[in-house]
């Protein structure tokens, strides 16, 4: 694994900082800014700490501090801080709907001309744009799939499945040998979301599917592909363990790391999370089969949350934020982000050969990949309605598919009016 070299990073940060215009400050004056985040994985925390440590050491007139909150409280915390004139200068947002909301409110700085943007692969930039203006830059792209303990698969002679029946047979073999097939962290809504998404997006996730549902131009009740996907999703419930809704993400990672469970449906960050629990666990990845056709195993790719710069009226904080933002777009940052966090960096020419799991994700060609870049996903209100309703019906012993679809249609109609 390529090591992060603090001395080089510090020199690079210093050279970038020196090249930028900075408001005149009194000697010894320090501008303090906050980086708000919700990252839980140890590798990403290490990346953040190294970025801040190196930047602060090379830029004595700026002090960046990290503030971490839980994912479930993140959006409300960010809004509260902005409303109380305590906005963080650096933060991330989750996709088009959030970018549009915060940009319309005037909270996002236009980073189109920001130094360092030339380091980012051009194909990912559109995901952070609103009406052609660059308000966010995704630092990574995530594969959403099944993450598995290769040691368990090897022990029982299991091969990567490409059809639903093959995956079901694997689950039966694991169950017979006293191993829970899936660790399902459904105590948190986003944990359930990953299981729905990997079962559904390859089937129903067209470019306009989400906006069609929000604009009421199509219904869930008449959507046969959605029904097929939810039926597939629910059919694996028996393999999620006795208490999926009492299982959090930390517990799920430990279960896979130590062989209590063999698999979990999640995003690329799971490689870092599981490995950090047990470095001896080899985490590998395969696309969730969605049909009996092997071509139905589709890798879901979605750009990660976009890093944003607050549009501050405080000139000194604004300039300090720009300098740190540029540092986050550097090649050194991209390499540290990838190697520490097991991430597919959007920075150009970052070597990812250190991780077999990341190689698994990248092995799927374009025809076997579903990519959400530039697609408008559900806005927050519709996101909550969609996944909370599915969670409610998942708690039942049997799936009431018609009832689920009717409930979604009524709730989406109420939200739209």
Can you say what the CATH homologous superfamily of the largest domain is? Periplasmic binding protein-like II
Mean pLDDT, as a whole number? 91
Beta-strand segment tally: 14
Helix content: 40-55%
Low-confidence stretches: 1-22
Taking Cα atoms only, what radius of gyration do you get, to the nearest Å?
A: 22 Å
Based on the structure given, which CATH architecture of the largest domain is correct? Answer: 3-Layer(aba) Sandwich
Count of DSSP-assigned helices? 16
The description of the largest β-sheet is:
7 strands, mixed
Walk me through the structure:
By secondary structure, the protein is an alpha+beta fold. The chain folds into two domains: 6-139 and 304-346, Periplasmic binding protein-like II (D-Maltodextrin-Binding Protein, domain 2), CATH 3.40.190.10; 142-302 and 358-416, D-Maltodextrin-Binding Protein, domain 2 (3-Layer(aba) Sandwich), CATH 3.40.190. The chain has helices spanning 6-18, 42-58, 71-83, 96-104, 150-155, 164-176, 189-204, 209-214, 224-235, 249-257, 269-277, 315-328, 331-341, 356-362, 380-394, 401-416, and strands spanning 31-37, 62-68, 90-93, 129-130, 133-134, 137-138, 140-149, 180-182, 261-266, 283-286, 299-303, 306-309, 344-345, 369-371. β4 and β5 form a beta hairpin. α1 (6-18) crosses α12 (315-328) and α7 (189-204) packs across α9 (224-235). The longest helix has 17 residues, at 42-58. The protein is globular and about 70 Å long.
Brief descriptors of the model:
alpha+beta; D-Maltodextrin-Binding Protein, domain 2; 2 domains; three-stranded antiparallel β-sheet; 16 helices; 15% strand; globular; disordered N terminus
């Amino acid at each position: 694994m390529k090591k992060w070299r603090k001395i080089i990073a510090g020199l690079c940060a210093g050279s970038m900082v020196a090249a930028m215009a900075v408001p005149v400050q009194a000697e010894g004056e320090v501008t303090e800014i906050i980086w708000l985040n919700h990252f839980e994985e140890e590798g990403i925390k290490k990346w953040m700490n190294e970025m801040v440590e190196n930047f602060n050491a090379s830029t004595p007139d700026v002090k960046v501090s990290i503030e971490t909150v839980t994912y479930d409280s993140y959006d409300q915390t960010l809004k509260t801080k902005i409303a109380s004139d305590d906005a963080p200068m650096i933060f991330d947002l989750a996709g088009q709907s959030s970018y549009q909301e915060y940009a319309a409110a005037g909270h996002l700085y236009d980073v189109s001309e920001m130094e360092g943007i030339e380091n980012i692969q051009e194909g990912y930039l559109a995901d952070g744009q609103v009406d052609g203006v660059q308000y966010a830059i995704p630092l990574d792209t995530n594969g959403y799939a099944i993450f598995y303990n290769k040691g368990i698969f090897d022990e029982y002679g299991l091969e990567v499945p490409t059809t639903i029946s093959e995956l079901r047979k694997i689950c039966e073999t694991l169950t017979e040998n006293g191993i829970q097939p899936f660790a399902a962290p459904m105590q948190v809504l986003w944990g359930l979301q990953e299981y729905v998404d990997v079962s559904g997006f390859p089937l129903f996730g067209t470019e306009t599917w989400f906006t069609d549902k929000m604009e009421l131009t199509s219904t869930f009740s008449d959507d046969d592909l959605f029904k097929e996907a939810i039926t597939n999703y629910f059919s694996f419930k028996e393999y999620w363990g006795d208490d999926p809704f009492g299982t959090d993400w930390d517990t799920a990672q430990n279960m896979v790391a130590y062989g209590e469970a063999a698999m979990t449906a999640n995003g690329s960050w799971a490689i870092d999370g599981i490995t950090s629990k047990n470095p001896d666990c080899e985490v590998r990845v395969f696309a969730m089969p969605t049909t009996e056709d092997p071509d139905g195993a589709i890798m879901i790719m979605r750009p990660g949350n976009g890093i944003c710069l607050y549009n501050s009226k405080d000139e000194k904080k604004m300039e300090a934020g720009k300098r740190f933002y540029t540092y986050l777009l550097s090649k050194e940052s991209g390499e540290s982000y990838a190697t520490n966090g097991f991430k597919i960096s959007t920075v150009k020419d970052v070597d990812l050969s250190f991780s077999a799991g990341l190689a698994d994700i990248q092995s799927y060609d374009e025809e076997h990949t579903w990519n959400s870049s530039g697609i408008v996903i559900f806005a927050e209100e519709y996101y909550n309605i969609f996944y909370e309703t599915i969670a409610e019906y998942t708690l039942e012993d049997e799936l009431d598919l018609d009832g689920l679809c009717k409930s979604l249609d009524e709730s989406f109609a109420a939200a739209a009016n």
